[in-house]
Amino acid sequence: MKARVAVHRDFRISTIDERLYSAFIEHMGRAIYSGIYEPGHPQADANGFRKDVLKFVQDLKVPAIRYPGGNFVSAYNWEDGIGPKDQRPVRLDLAWRSKETNQVGIDDFAIWAEQAGIDMMLAVNLGSRGLEDARNFLEYVNFPGGTTWSDKRRANGRQDPYDVKMWCLGNEMDGPWQIGHKVATEYGRLANETAKAFKGFDPTIETVVCGSSNDGMPTYPEWEREVLEECYENVDYISLHKYFGNKSNDTLNYFGKIEETGRYIQTIGGVIDYVKAKKRAKNDVHICFDEWNVWYHVREDDNRRIKEWDWPEAPALLEENYNFEDALFVAGLLNEFIRRSDRVRIACIAQLVNVIAPIRAEKGGPAWRQTIYYPYQFASLYGRGDALNIAVDAGTYDCRVADDVSYLDVAGVHDKEGGMLTLFIVNRHLTEAADLDVELNGFASPSLSEHLAMEGYDLNQTNGPTAPDRVVPGKGSGVGVEDGRLKGKLKPLSYHVLRLS
Ligand code: AHR
């Protein structure tokens, strides 16, 4: 397959907001308990956090993390998680039909996030609760001292405020499954009042309002319009969520869902523009794609189990075993976020540990990196700078979810300060190698300084506790710069990170 690509250093889409590579972690399953936190584990530190898991997280350079939910937040009392651990109540987690011991709360999580070098992005409960509790939480988290809630924080051991700048106004409020589910205008008004109060407290706070739970919701995209009409001037982002899978075992259609996601982003961009125009508003609202990942391998099984179980504590839930095909998918989806980074400023992989996650950890046992860890890591490490507008001329295909899908998926980021151009490429062709020919415009004598590749694996291959490094990136070969052009062959079903200086 011939694959012509044209890159020009001055043809930019946007300067990427590094929060494009953020993550999400929820109190559910074993994400927190026996995920990041497991006192008594041989790897646990003095606070009970697992050092092996923390190291894998640190290596990802995650800029921000959304916490504590998810569906969980819609019936969560944040005060249950503060103060002496032996006095914290055990509660029913209504979202996931399990028990929440509250052994990790905001002050504990903040310690972990600080160790991991990650900024917190906190969600407030607008399901079972509302503005009153949200503002108390804000006071606890962000006010220096001398008030009821800020003094409680100080008494609990944290003197300085956390100064959290990103606040999510509830979670998936359009979903009938959500505790405290609302209709659009009702939610839009509550979100507006909450955002107003938060910005009144600190105008530099950024707020994220809930968009649809996914683009298949019956109220999509009307939900976005109605919600934004209520709160446009007081929000900075609207959230998008989407989970993916290949249940029909059709690899090309699976990859086509990346194209479909591009349409989803474009549609919401259109709704934002419409509301902005209608309101004669001056401010811009961007997209915060704060839940995305592959979720299908164990989904049906979990749906059945959760209905039958008797409110367990930290049960194994949504523990997806990702294969090589999923790694190729995730690489492509991250490419789409880079290509749409003018609209999508923040995106959060959902989630980070154990629950639909790039990192897994056995209770009392080892931790390992799943296949999808690597494309996420490479995007986070090397995808910072200017997203370039790249032209690709390779073969295309039609599938159920999209037409004209390119077999070659390319995104490029130019880090002007570091003087590096990084190309992220997936050859999606099932059988043909791509005969790559990249025109490099505006780069003086470019040379290939690094080529990383994930290739040659069976699509179903996975990593696991006894084979943690079965599917890993290696040094790529067969690509080089000739007369100012990057040329070479990329194997079918392969992923490449090409770094030029
Ligand atoms: O990430 C798992 C769940 O998916 C979240 O709790 C919810 O927001 C979404 O439906």
UniProtKB/TrEMBL annotation:
<comment type="subunit">
    <text>Homohexamer; trimer of dimers.</text>
</comment>
<dbReference type="GO" id="GO:0046556">
    <property type="term" value="F:alpha-L-arabinofuranosidase activity"/>
</dbReference>
<keyword id="KW-0119">Carbohydrate metabolism</keyword>
<dbReference type="InterPro" id="IPR017853">
    <property type="entry name" value="GH"/>
</dbReference>
<dbReference type="InterPro" id="IPR010720">
    <property type="entry name" value="Alpha-L-AF_C"/>
</dbReference>
<dbReference type="InterPro" id="IPR055235">
    <property type="entry name" value="ASD1_cat"/>
</dbReference>
<dbReference type="GO" id="GO:0000272">
    <property type="term" value="P:polysaccharide catabolic process"/>
</dbReference>
<feature type="domain" description="Alpha-L-arabinofuranosidase C-terminal">
    <location>
        <begin position="290"/>
        <end position="494"/>
    </location>
</feature>
<keyword id="KW-0378">Hydrolase</keyword>
<protein>
    <recommendedName>
        <fullName>non-reducing end alpha-L-arabinofuranosidase</fullName>
        <ecNumber>3.2.1.55</ecNumber>
    </recommendedName>
</protein>
<comment type="similarity">
    <text>Belongs to the glycosyl hydrolase 51 family.</text>
</comment>
<dbReference type="InterPro" id="IPR013780">
    <property type="entry name" value="Glyco_hydro_b"/>
</dbReference>
<dbReference type="Pfam" id="PF22848">
    <property type="entry name" value="ASD1_dom"/>
</dbReference>
<keyword id="KW-0326">Glycosidase</keyword>
<dbReference type="GO" id="GO:0046373">
    <property type="term" value="P:L-arabinose metabolic process"/>
</dbReference>
<dbReference type="Pfam" id="PF06964">
    <property type="entry name" value="Alpha-L-AF_C"/>
</dbReference>
